[in-house]
Amino acid sequence: MKHRHYQPKCPVLAVAPGNWQQALQHASKSHRKIGVVSYNRPHSRNPRIIFKRDRHTTLSHYARELYSNFLDAEQAGVELLLVESVPRRGIGLAIMDRITRASQ
User: Fold this and answer.
1) Residue 19 confidence (pLDDT)
2) Which of 18, 52, 87, 88 is the most buried (most CB within 10 A)?
3) pLDDT profile of the chain (104 residues), mean per 10
4) Residue 103 contacts residue 5 (beta carbons within 8 Å)
5) How far is CA 55 from CA 29, 31, 32, 40, 74, in A?
């Protein structure tokens, strides 16, 4: 982690796959415009979600699209971006490194 990476202007919160419901409820209470980026789970309708990228896809595709999703969310006016975390093995190590850097 010696090089800086792109960091969106909005806060980024990594969400474990089993914690989406709780994270969305908590984020909705903040009255911020929410963005969601996940690779494995479509999300229910929530009036606070103004940006969604929630296609069922592969981890390699998720890794390729992560930064462009950050940029798109920022351009959409997202005030809090919830991003699905992945297991820290294989390509998941690189994905979580990018997510961690974006959230700092």
Assistant:
1) 92
2) 52
3) 67 92 90 91 79 86 92 95 95 94 87
4) no
5) 25, 25, 23, 6, 19
| Helical packing angle, 91-102 and 59-75, nearest 10° | 20
Q: Identify the CA nearest to 17 among candidates 47, 62, 61.
A: 62
Q: Tell which residue, 54, 51, 100, has the closest CA to residue 80.
A: 51
Check residue 1 and give its pLDDT: 45
Q: What pLDDT is recorded for position 6?
A: 67
DSSP string, 57-89: --HHHHHHHHHHHHHHHHHTT-SEEEEE---SS
- Which H helix or E strand runs over 53? strand 49-54
Q: What DSSP assignment string belongs to 29-48?
A: HTTPPEEEEESS------TT
